[in-house]
Structure formats: structure tokens, C-alpha cells
Amino acid sequence: MVKIKKYLLILGIISLFLIAACEQQTTTSQVSITEEDHSITEEDHEHGVDDVHEEDEDSSATMEVPAEGHEHVQEMVVVEANSQVKEFDMTAKQWEFIPSTITVNEGDTVKLNINNIDVTHGFRIAEFGVSERLSPGKTTTVEFTADKVGEYTFFCSVPCGSGHGAMNGKLIVE
Length: 174
Hints:
The protein is built from two helices and eleven strands. A hairpin with a 4-residue loop joins β7 (121-125) and β8 (130-134). The protein is 16% helix and 37% strand. The model is unreliable at 26-63 (pLDDT under 50). It folds into two domains: 2-66, no CATH class; 85-173, Cupredoxins -  blue copper proteins (Immunoglobulin-like). The chain has helices at 2-24, 42-46, and strands at residues 28-33, 61-66, 85-93, 96-98, 101-104, 109-116, 121-125, 130-134, 139-145, 150-155, 168-173.
């Protein structure tokens, strides 16, 4: 009888350690956003409806989302000491973005305040997972981290008229 009590006590202590360790661990799962995903609306996002596909070879961006049951876990964001927030005011109009070229440093947080002055446009930089719908007469803020050196094209992702195909610009990350 004494051996069973000792056994149960030891088993109970080990169980407590395992439970405590599991509660502190945060788990994320990888999902990918493909070219078709730009159709998610702000309303869908507010209601928790995300049209997310499993990662495949064609995927252009990857994001992390909390694993099921771990949505309450607070995310820790690590920012490099030499990174800065680079903020730009941009105008979207048929059929251009002004300015059309933006230069930042690797690791910078890029904040774009895009004022759309005419019809509905979109703003997309696939390499950084950015895809926003720009409503007429409104300013939309787009924020992301420029974590890859190179030159990237941003473009209007919503058909906006005859010059739509030429509505693009360049992000340079040094």
C-alpha cells in the first residue's frame, strides 16, 4: 500500500511538470497565401473567415497563425536594434502610384499611408504578403517589414480601367 502511494505521488509530480511545460509552450502552424487569396474582404476578416490554402510550390507568401487552441497566447515581436519605421505618404490614382519608387533598408518597418483619390484600386507586394483593397476617397495604411534585400514590384491588384496594367511601382530594399 505504501509503494502505491509513493508511486502515485511521483506520477502526480511528473504530471504537474508536464502540464506546466505544455502551457508555456506556444505553437504556430504555417499556412500560405497564394495569388487567389486577394479576394478576402475586410468583413470576412472581422468574422474570422480566412480563405487560406495549404502551402504549395506556387505560394508567394507565408504567414504564421496560432495553432488551434492557442489563439490567446500573446505574440512576441523581435525588432532588430538598427531597424527603423520608414513612413511614406502615397497617392493612388488612375493609373499610377505617387511616388512610384520607394527605397528602404533591410529590416525596416515600412508604413505606407495610401490616399486613393478616384476609383477602387488595390495594392500588392507579393514577396512581403501585402495585398490591400483601396477604397475611393480614403487613406489606407499598409505596414510590413522589409526583410529581404532586392527590388520588388508593387502593383494595383484590382482592375481599374484601361491603364490598369501599367499601374505599378518599385520597392528597393538595400
